[in-house]
Amino acid sequence: MEAIxxxxxxxxxxxxxxxxxxxxxxxxxxxxxxxxxxLVNVANTxxxxxxxxxxxxxxxxxxxxxxxxxxxxAIASYQSTTLKRISGIDVYHLQIPxxxxxxxxxxxxxxxxxxxxxxxxxxxxxxxxxxxxxxxxDQYALYNPGGVFGPPSSPQSxxxxxxxxxxxxxxxxWGSDSVIIAILDTGADFNxxxxxxxxxxxxxxxxxxxxxxxxxxxxxxxxxGIAAAETNNGEGIAGVxxxxxILPIKIVDNTGWSDVSTEIxxxxxxxxxxxxxxxxxxxxxxxxxxxxxxxxxxxxxxVVVVAAAGNDGVATYYxxxxxxCMAVAATNSSDERVTFLNTATDPLPWESNYGSEIDxxxxxxxxxxxxxxxxxxxxxxxxxxxxxxxxxxxxxxxLAALIRSIKPELSAEDIMDVIRYTADDVxxxxxxxxxxxxxxxxxxxxxxxxxxxxxxxxxHK
Amino acid sequence: xxxxxxxxxxxxxxxTLTCFSSAQxxxxxxxxxxxxxxxxxxxxxxxxxxxxxIGWDDDYTSKLKSLFxxxxxxxxxxxxxxxxxxxxxxxxxYEALVFRGxxxxxxxxxxxxxxxxxxxxxxxxxxxxxxxxxxxxAFGQFYYCYGIKKEWEVPGLAVEGTVxxxxxxxxxxxxxxxxYTGYETFFPYINLNFNKLWGKFNMDxxxxxxxxxxxxxxxGESSFCISLGFTFKLTESISFKSExxxxxxxxxxxxxxxxxxxxSLD
Lengths: 461, 266
Known about the structure:
The complex is a heterodimer.
Chain A lengths: L1 H4 L3 E2 L13 E2 L18 H6 L3 E10 L5 H10 L3 E6 L4 E5 L6 H10 L3 E8 L24 E3 L6 E3 L7 H5 L9 E6 L18 E2 L13 H10 L16 E6 L9 H13 L4 E4 L8 H12 L3 E5 L16 E7 L26 E6 L3 E4 L9 E2 L1 E5 L1 H18 L5 H10 L23 H5 L2 E2 L1 E2 L5
Chain B lengths: L2 H19 L8 H8 L3 E16 L4 E18 L2 E13 L4 E2 L8 E2 L4 E17 L3 E14 L2 E4 L7 E20 L5 E22 L2 E11 L3 E10 L4 E12 L2 E12 L3
Antiparallel strand pairs in B: 1-2, 1-11, 1-14, 2-3, 3-6, 4-5, 6-7, 7-9, 8-9, 9-10, 10-11, 10-12, 12-13, 13-14
């Protein structure tokens, strides 16, 4: 696969950060290694010990003719204790003495004519969902095994598991195709092989007032890809919401600008056309009552509105700052909030906006996503690296869509709260609890979607 | 109260009334009279444990393991007609039950944890046949377990969150008891009964201003029970009862055990 990829290059594009669009994006030459489907071990003991079974336990089944007394006597004679007796198959789960290895104990037990069989207590691990998309290995935001990410010209050193726990979340759901994520942006690439089957409808173009919201800028396709690119299709990237649909609504022109009036048209159109989630990877500093009213209308209709906080290191932009909207800040591949300091070597240093309105954060620094085929010239591939809270936002939109998929009766506020409260407080060392930089923390799909094993109440808290 | 509960309670009532309306003439066996026939009051206490496979309304199955200690009083109202009232304390585990409902905000899984509760029960028994060495009784029983609300923490959240669970279940066996009465103090028996178990588990979640509730209905996978047991009469007044139950279902067999001590106030 590496040979096939050799010589092919990703499109190089440095898109200037306009006032209204938050992404600062760039792609570089890169070669990707395709990995086989992998099983990730979640049982730390397994890998750390390098063993395939519990080191001090065995499972034993006695022959049916052996009486209870004989069984107990046998167990005692091996200086073992019964941890439990597995009902149904009548197998004893034994704790063996510390100074006896599992192999030695099994040998002894096998010599006993009363024993039907004895075996180690093997570890088992769950088969986590890993999509087969070619470039999934480079999507640190979804699964971060540590190492180096990003374009070769701006390599980013990642921290192991500084990601949104997408694979664990996908164990619970891949989303429903009846859940729609409206991307209010520069449109979408209808011909992109990693997006063409994910579009709910043609959407609408409020810039040209026609039903053809083809992306002539790139930003909308990038955002749509992160939220819900075609996943597990053997090519390209994985989207957060595998099965959810994209509704592209073009409200931003090919220079990256829009206005509140056009944005409101898009929001209303999204509500009328059944959107469950609205992604607004855009914003600006001016507060607008009409914009807030439109967002409130969406919120009251059960639509979760997610918006980018902004990239200028200043107070949270609007519409993200409205209470009916989730304001999303950006983290990098080490779970740090993106600041001018840690992007100093980027072509365009940037910083995630901040303020009391910030709800959560998601990876937004050098994120890999789709790029319009119409704007890509060979030998480049229609994929790109990009940065900005614009890229953080669709991660949250995708998660909102997944929650709506499995919990359709939750309100917009409930879904927003689930995302907030299940986030990882990754900057707790300096800012314990909710803070103005990453809000409740970096989103965690596993905690938001997979049942949490509850524990005894800590009365000392 | 659900229709099934009403039906079973009604069945118990009908059985009771039938018993009263068909009180029989004196029994032929002197030995039998000592044990069964005298109009009496017999207080007792007992211990019971069962492990039953239960199906949840989302097609998930788990084990309901319940342990209970009971105080009871059996009254022979008329010859051959017995009514027993039961009061007790239970501890039940629902083993890995998952709440992931459509309107339950953050899905949670119950750990293997025991939840305390109270047992309230009643039984009516009527002697049907009595020969020299065999006695056949019909019986109906109803146990109601009312769980005490238990609170757990939802760990790992950005804010504090708790869930509160309260289970209730009911068990209603109706069947026949075949007792061998050929021995003087030892009376082995086989109890064949139609044995229904059903109930619900309410879980409330509170994570700051985020709240939700899910109610899961449960029902026993097995509905037929065979119990083997014996009554041992230690003295004229004191007797013990022990019983092992087997409840087959399509993928296995559930089981239960019961021991009981009774004192007769003849």
